Amino acid sequence: MRRWTGISAIAVAALMAAEFVTQVTTVGTRPELSQEGALAEFMTAAANPTLFVILLDTFLMAALIVFLASFRQLITHTRHDMQWVADLGYGAGLVFVAITLVGDAMDAGAALDAVKQPASGTVIRALTEGHIVMFGSIGCVLTALVVAAAGYVTFASDVLPRWTGWFAFAVAASNLVTVPAMFNGTSATDPFSAGGGAVTALATFPFLAWVAVVGIVTIRGQRHHAAKRTAAAVGIAFVK
């Protein structure tokens, strides 16, 4: 379980980093939603890169499901009495994945509206206003629940170093801080708007960092446990 937890965590981190780089370098910043003509022109140029970002995000969500299942099993294998907390985090994670995929479908719909046909700024605006809340405030609440549950079971089970538990609680807090952004409009230039840059800086990146840390720690732990088993086997053979 440690190996799969680590591998899937690294896959999540790598895919999220690739998605961010693709978004920044090929998609860019959209115009204001009130400028429907400019929005249609933007999506016409960015349709294919947007669809590629969504493809990356789909694989990312698949890797996240593996990570959530492996992390849950890692906890319950050590502390059976912590299964309810592990299930809480796992369930919240699956709901987060489902909501993210719905948001991806809405984003893909906006992109497809501009593929091989004249784009409609009205359609793109409506779909964008829906998916930025899913990726923003709604997703942040669920992410906070996932990492808060992970932090709790980290302290209770000692499966991971205790500092990773504190890190998880900090990530949960930073995600909750961004939730009120949904009341601040949809401006692409305001970092504290729904879907603004603050959501990425305070919610997405910290979660990425936590997943990557868990992956590295569990892989190192797998090697440590393997080394201990090898040393124990050598010791037994030497005694015999």
Short description:
This protein has helices at 2-27, 36-78, 83-112, 121-157, 162-177, 197-239. It is mostly helical.
Residue share in helices?
A: over 70%
- Could you report the average pLDDT, rounded to the nearest whole number? 87
Rg calc: 21 Å
Could you tell me how far the N terminus lies from the C terminus, measured between alpha carbons in angstroms? 32 Å
Which geometry do the CA atoms define? elongated
By DSSP, the count of extended strands is: 0
Tally the helices: what do you get?
6
SSE topology string: HHHHHH
Q: What kind of sheet is the major sheet?
A: none
- What fraction of the residues are assigned to beta strands by DSSP? under 5%
Backbone structural class:
mainly alpha
Summed up, the domain count is 1
Commentary on this structure:
81% of the residues lie in helices and 0% in strands. The protein has 240 residues and is mainly α. It comes from Subtercola boreus. This is DUF4386 domain-containing protein. The chain crosses the membrane at residues 50-69, 90-112, 132-153, 165-183, 195-219. Keywords: Membrane, Transmembrane, Transmembrane helix.
